[in-house]
Write a structure and sequence with these properties.
By secondary structure, the protein is of the alpha/beta class. The protein folds into two domains: 286 residues, Zn peptidases (Aminopeptidase, 3-Layer(aba) Sandwich), CATH 3.40.630.10; 115 residues, no CATH class. The chain is built from eight helices and twelve strands. The strands form three sheets. Strands 1-2-4-3-5-9 form a six-stranded mixed beta sheet, sandwiched between helices. The radius of gyration is 21 Å and the shape is globular.
Length: 417
């Protein structure tokens, strides 16, 4: 978009260009990464898209225009939460049991991980626009008359404003799930799916059966080098409210992205090939033939809402503390448990069996850490040595914890995206 041009003018130009492109006959389309990339370009041309901004208004019109042109029923779901007015956007097509494919469309109002421009808005090429682009291209290519289920393309609002002014994360998806009149059979989330150097690991909270199906499809399509069937991140994202409801849900996300929540999250980091890989995996999942269908997904076994509740698991996953499923921001742990730190806790106490943890502060905390240090290298503020860890530890307050075997009980931890 030209400097000084309005988001509305940019939107009109982009829609006119899109309307002039010839479309393939229905049923003969395949997910095209170049088309998805154009949707990323279009969103960036509208400017920042945080709730209440001109770009936020414009991108809603852009999404509506594209899904309704392709024949999808469209609905706006307004909501208010944590001082924000938001709007979830829902497109529906097909008949039968419901399948949700979701992405957030808002961008972060402040680039608080940017060392030079932390108060500037995040452009959101990958964190925001990429997921929306995949959904919009799916709206074009999915063969609606042949769908054996009702597909909901849900564009969630206010996912990425968490931690700003003390707000919680994933506001839109939390509201959406709380007000659903129909329970979907499954939910697939796409977030940060455009990086030119993709590494899609298993997200640890995702339903194991569903994510295994998706990653198996990726391997069959030749994307096995990008879809790595190993657990890595455990993330607060828009699939969590569905899991809390007992709905199998899986996140496709590449969180190994240095530009996350910085002003460097720009178009030059996005690859049409990556968008195409993700889109074709979902396209194949949705349009599988009856003889390709696997056993029905079982609802995931979830932790209870209480953060003090523990569940036994495998040897390297013998202790898990759940916070977000019980209210997403109901409590905050603001300090480490090292015996030589004067830790102050603002939430429920850890069990007595958990006596130490190595913490690393990787982003400014909404509440101060009285005790933060890297898992390797330097020690706590008083100069003592932290407990040794077999693997690197990532800790941030107000998220998820998983405790591994001693002597480092907190071996991995969720980040919010």
């Amino acid at each position: 978009m030209l400097r000084g041009s309005s988001p509305r003018l940019g939107l009109m130009i982009l829609l006119l260009i899109g309307a002039c492109r010839p479309s393939a006959p229905a049923g003969g389309r395949t997910f095209d990464g170049r088309e998805a990339f154009r949707h990323v370009q279009a969103q960036l041309a509208l400017g920042p898209r945080y709730p209440g901004s001109p770009g936020w208004e414009a991108v809603q019109r852009y999404i509506e225009e594209h899904v309704t042109r392709e024949g999808w029923a469209f609905e706006v779901q307004p909501f208010a939460a944590a001082g924000l007015s938001g709007r979830n956007l829902i497109a529906r097509a097909g008949r039968g049991p419901a399948l949700v494919i979701g992405a957030h469309y808002d961008t972060r109002r402040r680039a608080d991980r940017d060392p030079e421009r932390p108060d500037d808005p995040v452009p959101g090429a990958n964190d925001g626009a990429s997921g929306v682009a995949v959904l919009l291209e799916l709206a074009r290519v999915l063969d609606r008359p042949r769908l054996r289920q009702e597909v909901w393309l849900v564009f969630f609002d206010a996912e990425d404003q968490g931690g700003l002014e003390g707000r919680p994360w994933i506001l839109g998806s939390t509201h959406f799930v709380a007000t659903m009149a129909v329970t979907p059979t499954a939910m697939i989330l796409v977030d940060m799916v455009g990086d030119a150097d993709p590494q899609f690991y298993y997200e640890q909270h995702s339903d194991p059966a569903l994510r295994a199906q998706l990653w198996r499809i990726a391997a069959e399509l030749g994307y096995g080098a990008w879809f790595i069937p190993k657990p890595r991140w455990a993330l607060i994202d828009d699939h969590l409210p569905f899991l809390q409801r007992g709905i199998p849900a899986a996140a496709i996300i590449d969180f190994d992205y240095p530009a996350w929540h910085t002003t460097a999250d720009t178009l030059d980091r996005i690859s049409p090939a990556t968008l195409e890989a993700v889109g074709r995996v979902i396209e194949r999942f949705v349009e599988r033939e009856p003889d390709e269908l696997e056993a029905p997904l079982k609802p995931p076994r979830l932790l209870s809402g209480s953060p003090e509740n523990l569940t036994a698991g495998k040897a390297n996953d013998n202790l898990r503390l759940s916070k977000a499923l019980g209210g997403l921001n109901g409590w905050m742990e603001s300090a480490c448990g090292h015996p030589r730190c004067s830790a102050q806790r603002s939430g429920p106490s850890f069990p007595t069996s958990v006596r130490s943890a190595a913490w690393r502060s990787w982003t400014p905390a909404p509440t101060p850490f009285p005790c933060c240090w890297p898992a390797r290298g330097s020690g706590p503020p008083d100069g003592s040595s932290p407990p040794s860890c077999a693997n690197e530890t990532h800790i941030v307050p107000s998220l998820y914890w998983r405790a591994d075997a001693p002597p480092c009980p907190f071996g991995s931890l969720g980040r919010s995206v």
